[in-house]
Amino acid sequence: MVKKTAFEGSVEYWQVLDESGKADKKLETKLDDAELKRMYGHMVLCRLFDRKAVSLQRQGRMYTYAPLEGQEASQVGAMHALAQEDVVFPTYRDHGSYLVRGAPLENLFEYWMGYEEGLKMPAGVNVFPLSITVGNHLPMAAGMAWSMKLRKRPLMSMVCFGDGATSEGDFHEAFNFSSVHKTPLVLLCQNNHWAISVPLKKQMASETVAQKALSYGAWGVQVDGNDVLAVYSAVKEARRRALAGDGPSLVECLTYRMSMHTTADDPKKYRSDAEVDEWKKRDPLARFEAYLASRKLWTPQYKADVEADATARIEAAVKTAEAFSAQPEAMFDFVFEKRPPSLQAQRDAFVKGE
Ligand SMILES: Cc1ncc(C[n+]2csc(CCOP(=O)(O)OP(=O)(O)O)c2C)c(N)n1
Ligand SMILES: [Mg+2]
């Protein structure tokens, strides 16, 4: 008798733009020119924001910062596939996600300059305060998705995290709960191949992150995370499933952290220049530019104009952030809607200078 396996499954790998920016005609995303240009504008904004932040830190004008360079397509592609009312739970590296959702640039600079107030978002941005703690925002995002289901809202919750976070219990608990209750959660893993100095091979024994979805009875897909159109398509499909009541999905974006873990890290201590050079060839911005040029939407002059516009916005935001006046007593705010008496007493003592 032939022994049947109890379970069979596989995950797909999606790529729309190859490394030279040529589109696979069968998979090419139907986006109009204006939307493609908006995506490009956001990717440029991400990169220039990031470089400015690193520069400010190096000048002693900002504290420790986690650069996103290399991950622009994963963040921008994913956010463009969401509705503005969907809710996003980011990490410390998801500045791009904040920017696409409409977070004021000065808020992000203020936060990284040490002011918690920076994370207080205007209404409608719908992004939770970023999680520095690896993985602990996954159960929160699962709770949000559950509440959306219970309240019958046609919305979804997205949680962004890295490859390292998949080793945390929180990842598995959130995923299991969400698939049992079929909640509209999309798990966006930016697999940038490193968790500080721990390489992917030492992080997990499975071949892909995406296949972990199968053990939760969910849909999982691995995409080229440096291909903004592939990420967009995958998240659109995950969102469609979420709203159709099919439960959570896992989108693994294969990408690379081109820079250091944070400005307190020196990646040369643990990874080779050759590896970084390999990934330079897959730069998400250059690839998208080549695609846009093939559609007659991009010229070097257009790039210069988009960059000039982003730079002006960034410089204005830095000025605003540097003029921000600190309110140290704010450290007692924002956790509780109504301060408990013990915290109130501490705040009173602090204000009196006791
Ligand atoms: C619970 C917890 N453990 C450890 C840390 C220290 N830490 C900060 S970032 C990080 C690596 C996370 O790697 P990954 O999830 O791949 O995200 P990436 O930084 O690559 O974007 C670790 C271990 C932390 N912040 N929280
Ligand atoms: Mg990582």
Briefly summarize what is shown.
This protein is of the alpha/beta class and 354 residues long. The chain has 12 helices and 8 strands. The protein has a 6-stranded parallel beta sheet, sandwiched between helices. A two-stranded antiparallel ribbon has the order 5-6.
Characteristics:
two-stranded antiparallel sheet; binds magnesium ion; 10% strand; Rossmann fold; binds thiamine diphosphate; 8 strands; alpha/beta; 12 helices; 2 domains; 354 residues; six-stranded parallel sheet; 42% helix
Q: What's the number of extended β-strand segments?
A: 8
Q: In the CATH classification, which architecture of the largest domain applies? A: 3-Layer(aba) Sandwich
- The helix content, as a percent range, equals 40-55%
Which small molecules are bound?
A: thiamine diphosphate, magnesium ion
Beta content comes to 5-15%
Under CATH, the topology of the largest domain is which?
Answer: Rossmann fold
Computed Rg = 21 Å
Quote the average pLDDT: 96
- What is the 3D shape? globular
Spell out the CATH superfamily of the largest domain: Thiamin diphosphate (ThDP)-binding fold, Pyr/PP domains
Largest sheet: 6 strands, parallel
Sheet with most strands: strand arrangement: 1-7-8-4-3-2
> How far apart lie the N and C ends?
81 Å
Uncertain runs:
none
Question: What would you call the structural class?
Answer: alpha/beta
